[in-house]
Amino acid sequence: MKKFISVFLGIFLVGCVYSVGSPLAFPKIECSNPKNFSKSQKDNLIYAYTFGAKQGMGYIMAAIAWQESCAGAYMMNFSDPSAGLYHAHIPVVIKYYSNYKDSDFTRNVMGQMLIDDKDFASQIALSTLLYWYNYHKKNLKNTIKSYNKGFKWEKDKTSNVLAESYYKSITKKIALLQSYLPPHLALSQNKNQITAQSNSKSLPLAKSSATKPTTTKSNATNVAKLSAKNQAIANSFHNRQTQRQSAKTTQQNTQAESKMDFEDYHLIFEGY
Prior knowledge:
This protein is an all-alpha fold. Helices cover 70% and strands 2% of the residues. Helix 3 (58-69) crosses helix 8 and helix 6 crosses helix 7.
């Protein structure tokens, strides 16, 4: 009986192996040349550029999206852990942009939010860039280096080497995007204009002009809310960083300061 059971289990396991087939292969995704990106990847580059363009950060945001997530193809890095189009470092996002304690559960929730909400992820990325841009007195190279390594690259040789490498990678991507994106941006704008004209033609003409001011007011309100939200995020991040910088100055020769520097002054967005 035992021999029969052993033979039966052996046959069963062999059958399972053959039924599964070949090992699962990873999908082939282009990350080197934006000309060969998928439509979704191209749309993400246009979205990132458009989000940052008014603040002069359009190409930088698009390059970071390309660098960090392959323009949205890989939205999660479990080893950091980071998530979203720009791979925001999840524990730091929880710390600076929420009222929740850092835990396995809140990391899962925040990671999913960063993946699902490009607007949220983009606001954090932009406010972070603007903070470093102001801190470094409009020096773009140092802004990008601090985006990758925070304050650490200024005093640590290893961090500086990594930050320099990150900066060079971003600038190469910016150069490629400056030749690639303009035609696609123009096409995207034309499509938006055509869609807006089509929508306006489909609406019945109103005898009263009351509709127009209402729409304009609503749009202005939405823009004001978005601007206020961006400003609030930027102010929150700036205030927290300023407090820690003050604490650093006061306690720079103590062991406690060294620990704080390691835990609080690392970059929100980790590069590969």
